[in-house]
Amino acid sequence: MPDPTELDARRRRLVFRAQHRGTKETDILIGGFVARHIASLSDADVAALEEILELWDVDLADWLSGRRPIPPEHDHPLLRRIMAEAGSGP
Fold first, then answer.
1. Does pLDDT of 38 surpass 80?
2. Dihedral of the CA atoms 10, 38, 87, 54 (nearest 10)?
């Protein structure tokens, strides 16, 4: 995990938001992924992450756990990466 002091303000804010989603399940699924990978995400992935973090926790938890498929309008490669790392994706 990168040293938070080495990240720019945008990325530090995203790590905090990802780890404080409101439900423990999404804090773990999303927050852990973001903490491990934030430093290596491209600018496009950071923008996608900002959009992902705007989605409802219940939907994210269902999609990332494989309980429901990701709808086409939210099916982004970054969300698939998070899902795969959580052990629920292809």
1. yes
2. 10
Among left, alpha and beta (phi > 0; psi -120 to 50; other), residue 19 is alpha
Whether the model pTM is above 0.90: no
Residue 75 in tokens: 């099916």
Tell me which DSSP letter residue 30 carries.
Answer: I
Tens digits of per-residue pLDDT, 2-24?
Answer: 555 678 999 999 999 999 988 88
Q: Which domains does the chain have, with CATH numbers?
A: 4-85 (1.10.150.250)
List all residues 6 or more positions away from 40 whose beta carbon is below 8 Å from its beta carbon. Answer: none
